[in-house]
Amino acid sequence: MEIAQNNKQKLSDNPLYWHGGVAVAVLLWFVLYSNLIAFSEWLTSLLPIERNSHAGEAVAFFLYDVPKVMLLLALIVFAMGVVRSYFSAEKTRALLSGRREGVGNVLSACLGILTPFCSCSAVPLFVGFVSAGVPLGVTFSFLIAAPMVNEVALILLFGLVGWKVAALYLAFGLAIAIVSGFIIGKLKLEGWLQEWVRNIHLNGAASTQNIGDSLTFVDRYRAGLSAMTEIFRKVWKWIILGIGIGALIHGYVPEDLMVQIMGADTWWSVPAAVLLGIPMYTNAAGVIPIVEALLGKGAALGTTLAFMMSVIALSLPEMIILKQVLTLRLIAVFVGIVACGILSVGFLFNVIF
Amino acid sequence: MKQIKVYGPGCQRCETVAQMVKDAAAKLSIDAEVEKVSDPVQIAMAGVMSTPGISVDGVLVHAGGLPDVSKLEGWLAS
C-alpha cells in the first residue's frame, strides 16, 4: 500500500508524465474547438424551437459562445499560469526600482500583464513598490495595466469580437497605463500619499530574500492548473450571465437600435459610457459578451471599448481599497487621468472606424 | 512554540492557507500559534507584496498563491 502511494507520488512528480499529459490535453482541445459549430448547431436542433426565430438565434448564440469561451479561457489561462510562474512581484520590483520615468513606465506596464496580480493585494504591492524606490508614476503604470490588460479580457475579445479588436485593446490599454503613469510621475504627487506610506521607506523590504526558490517544470504546470481552476471558479457565472444577456440582445434587440444610443454620431455616448462604467463592478468575463452583442447591433466600437475599459479599470471597490494608501486628492487625479485616457481612446476609435 | 502569521486581506485563498497551516502543524504535531493578519498596513510592513503570505517566527517564507503542502511542512518543521 505504502509502495503504491510512493509510486503515485513519484509518477505525479515526473516531468515526462506532465509533458505527455499536457500534449494530450492540448490535442484534445484542438479537436473539441474545431468541432464547436457542428456541436452547437446539433444541440440547438434538438430543442423544440425554430432555428430562425428570435429564440432560436439567442439559443444558438448561447450554446456556441459558452463552450467556445470556456475552451479558450482554459487554454490561455493555463498557459499564462505557467508563464507567470517565471515572474513574481519581488522580481518585478527589483527590475523597476530606481528606474527612470519613461522607460520605467513602459517596462512597468508590460510587466503588469505578466506579473501575478490580484486586486486584493493591490495595497501591499503598492507599498512594496514605493518603499523600495520604484517611482510613483512607474508604480501607477503597473497598477493600471495589471487589472485592465489581462488575459481573460484579451481572450474574450479575441474569441467573441475578433483578433483586431483584441490587439487594439492590448495596445491602447498599455498606452493608457504608460501615459497616465508618466503624467502622474511628472506631477510629483508623492506628498499626496497617506502619511504612513511616506514613512515606510525600505522598512520591510529586506525580509523577502528567501522567497522564490527555483521551481521545477512540474511546479510550473501545477501553477498553470491552479490558475485555471481559480479563474474558472471565479468567472464561470459571469461568463454564463454575460453570454446570456448577450444572447438576449442578439436575438431580441432590433437591428440598429443601438446606432442611435451608442452610435459614432452621438458625441456624448463616450463620456456617458465611461461614467456608467465606474460604479459597475464586474470583470471582463461578464462585460465582454455584452459588448459583443452591442457591437452586433450597431453600437460604435469606440463607445463600447470605452465602456469596457471603464468597467474594468475604474472600479469603485478598488478605489476604496486604494484609499488606504492614497489621499482622496491623489485618487481623484488618478481617476481623472485614466478617464481622460479612456475618453480619448473612445473618441479616436469612433473617428477611425 | 512557533509563531506563524498568515498575511492576507481576508480573501478566499487566505482562509484556505490559514487552514492549510493549521492542518500541517497538527499533522506534524508542532506546537504552533497561527495568527491571521488582515490589516493592509501590517501586511505591507511585513514586506508581503502578493497575498497570502506566510511567516514563521518572523521570517517570511512564502508570498502569493497557495503553498505546496510538502514545502509548507518543510517550513514548519525547520
Would you give an account of this structure?
The complex is a heterodimer of chains A (353) and B (78). Chain A contains 18 helices and no strands. By secondary structure, chain A is mostly helical. Chain A has one domain. In chain A, helix 3 (36-46) runs antiparallel to helix 4 and helix 8 (136-148) packs antiparallel against helix 10. Chain B is 40% helix and 27% strand. Chain B contains three helices and four strands; from the N terminus they run βαβαββα. Chain B has helices at 12-27, 40-45, 69-77; strands at residues 2-7, 32-37, 53-56, 59-63. In chain B, strands 2-1-3-4 form a four-stranded mixed beta sheet. Chain B starts with a strand and ends with a helix. The model of chain B has no long low-confidence stretch (mean pLDDT 84). Chain A binds chain B through residues 88-90, 93, 116-118, 120-121, 123-129, 131, 196, 200, 203-208, 210-211, 219, 222-223, 226, 230, 324-325, and chain B through 7-9, 11, 13, 40-41, 43-51, 59-66, 68.
Relevant terms:
heterodimer; A: 353 residues; mainly alpha; 18 helices; 75% helix; flat; B: 78 residues; alpha+beta; Glutaredoxin; 3 helices; 4 strands
Order of helices and strands of chain B: EHEHEEH
The radius of gyration over CA of chain B amounts to 11 Å
What's the overall average pLDDT of chain B, rounded?
84
Look at the helices and sheets of chain B and give the structural class.
alpha+beta
Unreliable parts of chain B? none
| Low-pLDDT segments, ≥5 res of chain A | 1-8, 203-210
Q: How does the helix and strand content of chain A classify structurally?
A: mainly alpha
The tally of domains of chain B stands at 1
Assign a percent range to the helix content of chain B: 25-40%
Secondary-structure element string of chain A: HHHHHHHHHHHHHHHHHH
Could you give the count of β-strands of chain A?
Answer: 0
Rg of chain A: 22 Å
The largest β sheet of chain B comes out as: 4 strands, mixed
